[in-house]
Each structure stands twice: as structure tokens, then as C-alpha cells.
Q: What sequence folds into this?
């Protein structure tokens, strides 16, 4: 076990790093977006989508029905605290520490929006459902809510954090059952949607279920976009150009690459195949380099959203969760 003094020194060292402050800014911005999505597009029409906020909306309305005043921000905060305790024991502590910050922000940020710009200023009565709606229709509210919340969740998951609530349950399902994170959110959220029968008609519950399903798809879409890399294969016509390409990738782009001896099936000529994983900008730089130096080559490129191995990020070694061909893990990512 680490001593208290050691933990204090490690915490102090983390506070002095740009990585810490960058992630803090990302988490704060992500939670503000999530709070706005919940407060302006979910609360007015009592839209029970499969999220912790959806469950809290049910609790608040059930409490109001029996004469008990319960604030949405308070209920979100209390339930988040209970789930965070669960996350501490079942998920890695780095995930839990970041999620503590995010989860504790969600309730207060929702309360802040309620004081600064109440949704009542913008909401109108929907002609189709008879419920309040910021966009004038619950389907439009649903679209705005899912897009904003899905983007926020994907950004936070990418830095090993979470908006809290059911994201914790989803992360546990993802880690223990090996589900996609979007699928995990959909499974956990579907149960919450069914609680909407307590306060909403069947039509609104169906809208919530559809929104939960779409939310899972949106998270997967945004997550894949954030992690997307280009898997590039270059086979120069001349053997001597292979070394030129290799040096550009390793020295200018500061990326690893793999070299393979290949033989043309039609000409039976010996050639060198160079494979590398690049960002979109780096791929563009590589294509410009080949054109500028008049290197004739056969080139293929495909998108890769998951990679396992060590990835250079801004010239630093960083471990990320990605998946690539096993032959690359021993050669491509060594410095």
C-alpha cells in the first residue's frame, strides 16, 4: 500500500501537468453540454430516455404526485454518489476518480441552468402530445438531446471518464461482459425507459425507448470518429524509394511502420511493402510527400477505429484501447 505522503506527492505532480488541466477542461465542457441536453430537451416534456436523469425525472414527478418537493439536481447528485461508490469497487480507480468529478458537476450545473436560464422561457406546448417542448415537438427534443448527450459521453469515454449515472453501469457491462459501450448504454437504459410508464402515456415511453437505442448508436459513431486512424499500405515501384518513405514516416511524422518483402504476382518483381497507422492529417502529409518527390507507388488506406498497442500521440508514448492486426503490435509501435 502506498503511504499518504506518496499519494500526496503523486497528486501534486499531476496538478503540474498539462495533461491534467486539459482533461479537466474537457470534462467540465463535456458536463456542461450534458447538463444543457438534459435540462432543455429532456425535462420540459418529461422525456424518459434511458439515463440517470430520466430515472430522476420519474422520481421527481412521482414525489410531486404525493406532495413531496424533490429537486432534479438533488436527486441526480444523490444517486450519482451511490453509483460512484459501486464504481470504485468494480471499475478501475482512474475511471472512478474522473467520474467523481463529472458526476458531482452534473447536478449543480443543472441547478445553475435552472437559475440562470429556466427552460420555461423557451418551451411551448406541443400540438401533437400536449406536453411542453423547447423545440415544439418531442421528436425534435429527442434528436437534440441524443446528439448532445451522445457527443458528450463519447468525448468523456475517450479520456476514460464518464458523465456518471448509468454510464457507470454501462462501463461495468462493457468491461465485464465485453459489450460495445453503446450497446451497454442501450441495455442499461432500456430498463430505465420502462419506468416511464409511471408518469407518461405509452406514446412517450416508446419515444424514450427509441431515443435510448439511437443514443447507443450515436455514442458508437462519435467514439469511432474520435479514435479513427488510417491504416496505410504503400508499395513503391522502386526498392530505393522504400527507404525514402520509411524515413519520412519515422522521422518527419514520428510514427512507427512495418516493412515486408513482397513479390508482384503479375511481374514477379521483388518489392517492399510499408504499413503504418496514421491520423488523417498525417496521411494527407504522406500523400503530399509522395507527390512532391514523384514517388510512384501502389497505395491503399482504410479506416481503423480500434487499435491495441502503443501509439505515439504528440511525440509521446500513450497507451490507448485500440485494435489492430497482431503482427503490428510487436513491430509497428516500437520506438
A:
Amino acid at each position: 500500500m502506498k503511504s499518504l505522503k506518496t499519494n500526496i506527492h503523486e497528486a501534486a505532480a499531476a496538478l503540474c501537468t498539462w495533461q491534467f488541466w486539459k482533461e479537466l477542461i474537457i470534462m467540465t465542457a463535456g458536463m456542461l453540454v450534458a447538463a444543457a441536453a438534459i435540462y432543455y430537451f429532456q425535462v420540459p416534456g418529461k422525456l424518459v430516455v434511458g439515463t440517470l436523469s430520466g430515472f430522476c425525472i420519474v422520481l421527481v414527478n412521482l414525489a410531486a404526485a404525493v406532495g413531496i418537493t424533490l429537486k432534479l439536481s438533488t436527486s441526480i447528485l444523490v444517486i450519482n454518489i451511490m453509483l460512484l461508490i459501486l464504481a470504485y469497487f468494480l471499475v478501475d480507480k482512474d475511471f472512478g476518480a474522473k467520474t467523481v468529478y463529472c458526476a458531482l458537476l452534473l447536478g449543480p450545473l443543472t441547478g445553475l441552468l435552472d437559475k440562470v436560464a429556466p427552460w420555461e422561457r423557451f418551451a411551448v406546448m406541443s400540438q401533437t402530445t400536449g406536453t411542453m417542448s423547447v423545440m415544439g415537438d418531442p421528436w425534435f427534443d429527442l434528436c437534440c438531446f441524443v446528439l448532445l448527450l451522445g457527443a458528450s459521453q463519447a468525448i468523456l469515454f475517450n479520456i476514460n471518464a464518464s458523465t456518471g449515472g448509468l454510464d457507470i453501469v454501462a462501463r461495468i457491462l462493457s468491461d465485464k461482459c465485453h459489450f460495445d459501450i453503446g450497446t451497454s448504454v442501450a441495455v442499461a437504459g432500456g430498463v430505465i425507459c420502462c419506468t416511464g410508464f409511471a408518469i407518461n402515456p405509452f406514446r412517450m415511453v416508446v419515444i424514450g425507448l427509441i431515443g435510448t437505442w439511437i443514443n447507443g448508436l450515436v455514442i458508437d459513431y462519435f467514439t469511432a470518429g474520435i479514435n479513427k486512424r488510417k491504416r496505410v499500405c504503400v508499395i513503391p515501384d522502386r526498392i530505393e524509394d522504400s527507404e525514402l518513405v520509411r524515413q519520412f514516416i519515422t522521422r518527419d511524422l514520428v510514427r512507427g511502420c512495418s516493412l515486408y518483402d513482397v513479390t508482384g504476382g503479375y511481374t514477379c518483381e521483388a518489392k517492399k511493402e510499408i504499413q503504418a497507422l496514421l491520423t488523417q492529417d498525417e496521411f494527407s502529409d504522406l500523400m503530399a510527400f509522395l507527390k512532391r518527390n514523384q514517388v510512384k507507388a501502389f497505395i491503399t488506406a482504410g479506416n481503423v477505429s480500434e487499435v491495441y498497442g502503443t501509439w505515439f500521440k504528440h511525440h509521446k508514448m500513450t497507451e490507448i484501447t485500440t485494435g489492430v492486426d497482431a503482427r503490428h503490435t510487436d513491430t509497428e509501435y516500437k520506438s
Observations:
- The longest helix spans residues 202-227.
- The longest strand covers residues 270-278.
- The chain has two domains: 4-226, 228-329.
